[in-house]
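Same chain as my last thread, 299 residues:
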Amino acid sequence: KATVSVLNWNQAHHLRHAKTRTIMAADGPVEYMSRKQVPELIDALVLRMVDARPEDPRAFMAAVLAGSPPPTDSPGQVQLFLMRLSANCHGVWLTCRLGGVEHEVRDVDLFKGENMAPEFLAINPTGQIPALKDSDGTCVFQGNAVMRYLCNKFLSARKLYPADLRQRAHCDMALDWRNTDLVPQIYGVAGAALGFFPPDEAKAAAAHAKFNDADRGIWKVFTSHFLGSSLYVCGDDISIADLAIFPMLTMLEMVDYELPSAVKAYKERCWAETGYEELYNGCGGYGLKQHMDTKRSEG
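reply #2:
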């Protein structure tokens, strides 16, 4: 039997890819080794755990057994490229703040075309915000992907992305629904008033209809399927699904849109839970509140 002193982690990892078979455990299929290999793998795992002393041992072991970099709490500062007035960027910003991720905000002004600068296109070739650049040079764009990346990498942010398979699927569905169904209608109703798009009465009317459809409308789906009787999308704990959704609801204030009572109460809970007032005010910069005030003053 190999001893801990001569079995390095790469060797232990390779053991996992030896000939295996699968049995059904209470919570799903589990791979395991021969009896000779198991002690070697356990020795290596224990040594790695003792050296790392992870805050979340289960997440740590899951990562190393999958051959992924273990989550960490101190990998260096990430850079967030965003526009403070854009509610679409606030989900990733809130994920860093609530998840305890050290970050630097890099302002990108779309109105000035800064998103098309070569240095930004090297980070996100689509020229869209938000985007992230990690301390090791990794670049991630698309807001939902950025939030998942942060939660998967940083132990302190894991709480924002459910570990339970069914809850995580529910969270992912809400994130995708937010992009494909909710956001287009919000832009249809409030985008022109905020100066993001030219006025389009037909688009606005279609968005209003989509919101209020009694059978498959936005509010019907959100309250009955995603929210139900829970405080938040994934139950009693806030998640990245909420961080992506509720800031967008704030945009509707620009046109004095009356949210259904359940949706309004949800937005207010999220606002209070996350301390959103500071982001709404731009955290010392030109935020969504200032932009909405400016547009109102312009008539």
